[in-house]
Design goal:
The chain has three helices and nine strands, in the order βββββααβαβββ. The chain is α+β, with helices and mostly antiparallel strands. It has one domain (about 5-160): 2-Layer Sandwich (60s Ribosomal Protein L30, Chain: A). Helix 2 (about 75-85) packs parallel to helix 3 (about 115-130).
Length: about 160
């Protein structure tokens, strides 16, 4: 990764947050069963990172559901980012997506035939990204350890550090 990270704005995303940067920025987050979705537009220097925690907005979410609360969900976070790229007139073909996380970091119950939250997050992310017309160029999904990711919006590089 380029050695001038310290000179750029740094944004650390908590679970359930998303951030779109239209200028050089370093985006960071820590993932376990959550997924991290990095969007990069190379020719415009735009980068975004979403850190949703759960697969889908519940059907019975009701009127009390706010945009901030919905960013916790994979489907909503991707669809919201798609709308933001539309507002910026960025065609989906011009966006590179990298997908991370979805690990099984928690003890899985005796019901091993049921998918884990990490696996459901992975599945929904892949499905919704495809439905929205995004191209996934890299993934690091699954496993049983969390990871810390650092996304540099100038180069599109994402560094991963495995957590013990």
């Amino acid at each position: 990764m380029v050695g001038y990270d310290g000179d750029l704005p740094q944004v650390y995303l908590q679970p359930g947050e998303s951030h779109l940067a239209t200028g050089p920025t370093v985006l960071r987050t820590l993932l376990g069963s959550c997924v991290g979705i990095a969007f990069w537009v190379p020719d415009r220097g735009i980068g975004a990172l979403c850190h949703p925690m759960l697969p889908r907005v519940p059907a019975r979410a009701g009127a009390l559901t706010t945009t901030v609360n919905c960013r916790r969900y994979v489907d909503f976070a991707i669809q919201e980012m798609a709308r933001k790229f539309d507002e910026l007139r960025v065609p989906r073909a011009g966006v590179q997506v990298k997908l991370f996380g979805g690990a099984d970091v928690l003890l899985v119950s005796a019901h091993r035939h049921q998918p884990t939250v990490g696996q459901m997050n992975q599945d929904v992310a892949g499905q919704v990204l495809a439905e929205e017309g995004f191209r996934v160029v890299a993934t690091r999904l699954g496993g049983d350890h969390g990871i810390h990711i650092t996304f540099h919006t100038v180069t599109g590089e994402v560094l991963l550090r495995r957590l013990n």
